[in-house]
Amino acid sequence: MKKLILLFCVAFALVFASCKSTTQETDNGAASLVDGQIEGQEETSGDDANAEDAAKTASALEAAEAARQAAIEAGAKDAYGTAFAANDAAFEAIKALNDGKNHDAELADIKARYDALAAASKAKKLKERIDNEGLAVNAQSDYDAGEKALAEFDTLLAAAVTPGAALNKKATEAYNDYYAVYFKSYKKFANEERKNALAKKKEADAVKAQIARKNEYKASAEKIIKGDQQYSFSKPEEAYNSYKDATSSFDALAKDVAAKRAEAQKAIEEAKAKVAASNEYAAKADVEKPLGDEPVAGIEAEDTVLLEADQFENPDKEIINIDESVKEAN
C-alpha cells in the first residue's frame, strides 16, 4: 500500500514537471513571436519615416528651385548679383550633401532669400519707373515709405545673419509701397482721361457722327466701355490707355465728320446761290424777252429737287449713352 502511494506521487510529480516545461516553452515561443512582430513594426515605421522625410526634402528642393527661377525672371542676378550668387552657393551645397538628413529648415531659408531678392528687384524696377515718370507727387507718403523700406532691406541684406523670412518681409514691404504710388497715379490719370473721352464723344454726338459714321462711332464708344471694365477690375493703367485711345478716335471722328458736313453745307450754299442767280436771270429775261411756257435747256423746272433732304427722324436715338462716372469692383 505504501509502495502504491509512493508510485502515485512520483507520477504526479513527473506530470507536473512536464506541464510546467510545456507552459514555459509556450510562453517563450509567444514572447519570441511578439518580439519578432515588434521588431518588424519598428523596421516598417522607420521606412515610412524615411520615405516621408525624402518626400518633404524633394518638395522643399522643388520650392526653392521655383523661387530661384522667379528671382532670375525678376532681374535679381543684375540687381543683387552678389547676394544671389551667395544664395546659389548655399543651395548647391545643400543639394550636394545627399546625407539622408532633414534639411527643410535650411531650404526654407534659401527659398525665402530668393523670394526676397525677387521682391526687392521688382521694387527697384518700379521705383525707377516712378522716378522716370514723376509719379511720386501723386502719393508722396507711399513713395517715402518705399524709399525707407528699400534702404532698410539693403542694410539687412548686408548682414549675412539676417533670416530669409525677415529679408522677404522687408522687400515685400518696399514693393507694396512703390506699387501704391503706381496704382494711385494711374487711377488719377484714368479718371482724367475718361472725362476727356466723354467730352470728345459729345463733340461727335453734336455733329451726328452716330449717324454719319455709325460703325466708327460704336467702336470708339466700346473703347470707353472696355476702359470701364478694366478700371473696375483694378487695372488703372490699362483703363487709362483705353480711355486715351477713345479720346483720340472720338476727336478724329468728330473733326472729320464736322469737316465733311462743312463741305456739304458749302456745296448747298453754292447750289442755292446758283439757283437764285438762275431765277434772277430768268425773271429779267422774261421781262425783256418773254419765252412763253416752253422749257428751255439749261434752266431747271420750278419744282426740281437739287439736293436730297435728310431722312433722319431723330438722330439722338442713335447716341450711345455712357454713365458719367465709373465704379470700381467691390
Describe the protein.
This protein is mainly alpha-helical and 330 residues long. Helices cover 79% and strands 0% of the residues. It is built from nine helices and no strands. The protein has helices at 2-73, 76-79, 81-97, 104-133, 140-158, 164-206, 209-212, 214-232, 236-288.
Q: What low-confidence regions span 5 or more consecutive residues with pLDDT below 50?
A: 1-41, 305-313
Strand content: under 5%
Care to count the β-strands?
A: 0
Q: How would a textbook summarize the main sheet?
A: none
Keywords:
330 residues, 0% strand, 79% helix, 9 helices, disordered N terminus, elongated, single chain, mainly alpha
Entry summary:
By secondary structure, this protein is mostly helical. It contains 9 helices and no strands. The longest helix is centred in the first third of the chain and has 72 residues, at 2-73.
Strand and helix map with partners:
Elements lengths: L1 H72 L2 H4 L1 H17 L6 H30 L6 H19 L5 H43 L2 H4 L1 H19 L3 H53 L42
Helix pairs in contact: 1-4, 3-4, 4-5, 4-6, 5-6, 6-8, 6-9, 8-9
